[in-house]
Amino acid sequence: MRHLVTAALLVVGVIHLLPLAGVLGAERLNQLYGIDASESNLAVLMRHRAVLFGLLGGFFVLAAFKPPLQGLAVLAGFVSVLSFLALAWGAGVNAQLGRVVTADWVALAALVLGAGAWLARRA
Questions:
Q1: pLDDT tens-place string over residues 91-105
Q2: Is 36 helix (H, G, I), strand (E, B) or coil?
Q3: Rounded CA gap, 17 and 53, in Å?
Q4: What DSSP element (H or E) covers 103?
Q5: What is d(CA 117, CA 115) in angstroms, rounded to the nearest whole number?
Q6: What 8-state DSSP symbol labels residue 18?
Q7: Dist. CA 43–CA 104, nearest whole Å
Q8: d(C-alpha 11, C-alpha 94), whole Å
Q9: How many helices (H) and strands (E) does the chain have?
Q10: Cβ distance 78 to 110 under 8 Å?
Q11: I need a labelling partner for 31 at 20 to 30 A (CA). Which of 12, 17, 23, 98 fits?
């Protein structure tokens, strides 16, 4: 069971680390999300979002190997993934954001498995 929690958090961590590439600028943000981030205010916000996702993804990877952090990581993962899926639900996202939605469904599946293994290990 321990390895299932580790694997789940690594999957969620990698998915959350992918947007970190957006810190490189508007061109990369356009490739990631299919949005025009050439307006400087939007670019700053989206690049900051990339940094925050990098921090969160790094936390998931760290927690994968630090059992005392795993419960908090699973909770943070659910908040992150479910909030995005709720916001995207019915919003008519473009193809690039559709890939993000798909990735978050994968992350959600990993979190459900990981949370179940984490809870079983604690019982």
A1: 989 999 999 999 999
A2: coil
A3: 6
A4: helix 95-122
A5: 5
A6: G
A7: 23
A8: 24
A9: 5, 0
A10: no
A11: 12
Contacts of 22 (CB under 8 A, 6+ apart): 28, 29, 32, 33, 46, 47, 49, 50
Amino acid at 87: L
pTM confidence score? 0.93
User: Residue 90 is which amino acid?
Assistant: G
Considering the chain, what is the average pLDDT of its residues? 95
Output 79-83 pairs: Cβ under 8 A, ≥24 positions apart: 80/16, 80/56, 81/12, 81/107, 81/108, 81/111, 82/108
* CA-to-CA separations, 17 to 57, 116, 120, in angstroms, rounded: 5, 23, 28
